[in-house]
Amino acid sequence: MSAQGAVPPQLQGRVAGGFDWLSSMDGLYGKSDSLWEKAQFSSGDAGRNQRVFGEVMWQQANTNTPFFGMMPKMPAESAPSNIADPRPMTYRAVFNPPTFSAVDEGGAWDTPVDFDTREVELDPRHSTMRFEGTVLQQVLADIQDGVPFDNITQIGEEYFQRSLEADGIARAVESSTDAGTQYADSDKITSIDRVVASEDEEANATDVNGTAFNNGDLDVYNIDRSATGADASNEANWADAVVNHNSGNDRQLTKDALNETIESLEQNGTNRGNLTIFTGYDTARVISELTESQFRADAMDQLMSQTVNRGTDSGTETRPGHSWGTQLSTYEGIPIVPGPNVPSDGLSRVYMLDMTTQQDPVTGQNIPKLGVETYIPMTVETAGLGQSTNTLALDNLVEQQGLLTTHQIRCNRFNHQGKLRDLKE
């Protein structure tokens, strides 16, 4: 050994017995007929053939949210600067208009009238969803065939919005006799089924399971739907929507039932041009079938002046005819928006919603009659490796991401909203 402690050249690559394994290995693996070449043909394929799945995760769930997507969003992150502007969380409603008085010539003025008003208070609701992955999972995503945490959270955002619809605004109100929770006891954003409801529905109809409602099951905000007497919160049923029900007994969906509901809404002051029908795919199909004869008459009128065609696809011809179907996008001019998350009795219920704006005649301010009021917009919070809130603060070697929004369904005009329920084919 040299003075510097280095291994002499003659001992490098040797073991104590003097075998030069380094040279031997070079010989074994360096020739065409070596053990290395033979191993490629004589060994099994274990550990040599593998499948790589990649970082992409292909979505298998229905994440369409037409109900949530079509509703107007009312930003309410801060108080308005002008007291005349619409206020977040609260508003005053005026109803029960008085009648004029007839006075004889030279007669006295009648007694002054009072306007009936109510103060409505909304309760903001937090909606959250949290995702987590370990630090090792992220390492494997970086150097192996793993799914990055960012991909997980992107899918999570789609699931979050889906849940806001399916488990939030589109869910059916259930009786508190069973699994239902009354408005005051729930931390969830309220549902359209609760907003578009009435005192008569609570008293005489049933939930989707056929169970009678209890007093308070269809209350909303600070409004007791059953309190319809003088000076009560729902005096003269001012906060009732138009609800066409059959006491929980399913009846056939007909044009008469649809038109009756529409006409009641028109009687309350809305215009059918302001309405949008939201329902399930099954009910949308039945509505198309109800208007099939009129559709065929309109279609045949156009066909009279056209040549009969054959459709072709890769050389395969269809039978002679035209591609006319009876799947309609409107009912008597009212748009139909079908969705996957609609409360159903025998058929999915039909919601006729007026989401247009109404205007205060004094200030000129506009506000949607129905929409989602948002107090904290969608916010993404992150914690984990390298974040301000790191793994030490979490006390675990994980990465987390949370989604948060604070919001509530806001209805500024109840009797311009309608619901047709207890339906079957």
What is the topology?
Layout: H1 21-30, H2 35-42, H3 66-70, E1 73-75, E2 90-95, E3 116-121, E4 125-134, H4 135-143, H5 149-169, H6 192-195, H7 199-204, E5 242-244, E6 251-252, H8 255-267, E7 275-280, H9 281-290, H10 292-303, E8 312-313, E9 316-317, E10 330-331, E11 334-339, E12 350-354, E13 357-359, E14 366-368, E15 370-383, H11 391-394, E16 398-411, E17 418-420, E18 423-424
Parallel strand pairs: 1-15, 5-17, 6-18, 7-11
Antiparallel strand pairs: 2-3, 4-16, 7-12, 8-9, 10-11, 12-17, 13-14, 15-16
Q: Would you list the SSEs in sequence order as H and E? A: HHHEEEEHHHHEEHEHHEEEEEEEEHEEE
Low-confidence stretches: none
Compute the number of helices. Answer: 11
Strand order of the largest sheet: 5-17-12-7-11-10
- As for the number of domains, it is 1
| Gyration radius, in Å | 34 Å
State mean pLDDT (0 to 100 scale).
84
How many strand elements? 18
Helix content: 10-25%
The separation of the N and C termini measures 98 Å
Strand content: 15-25%
Major β-sheet annotation: 6 strands, mixed
Apparent shape: globular
| SSE class | alpha/beta
The gist of it:
This protein has 425 residues and is an alpha/beta fold. The protein has eleven helices and 18 strands. The protein has one domain (66-76, 86-97, 113-301, 326-424).
Notes on the structure:
It is a single chain. The protein has 425 residues and is α/β, with parallel strands linked by helices. It has one domain. 24% of the residues lie in helices and 22% in strands. The protein has eleven helices and 18 strands. It has helices at 21-30, 35-42, 66-70, 135-143, 149-169, 192-195, 199-204, 255-267, 281-290, 292-303, 391-394; strands at 73-75, 90-95, 116-121, 125-134, 242-244, 251-252, 275-280, 312-313, 316-317, 330-331, 334-339, 350-354, 357-359, 366-368, 370-383, 398-411, 418-420, 423-424. The strands form six sheets. The chain has a six-stranded mixed beta sheet, covered by helices on one side. A four-stranded mixed beta sheet has the order 1-15-16-4. Strand 10 (330-331) and strand 11 form a beta hairpin. The longest helix is centred in the middle third of the chain and has 21 residues, at 149-169. The protein starts with 20 loop residues before the first helix and ends with a strand. The model has no long low-confidence stretch (mean pLDDT 84).
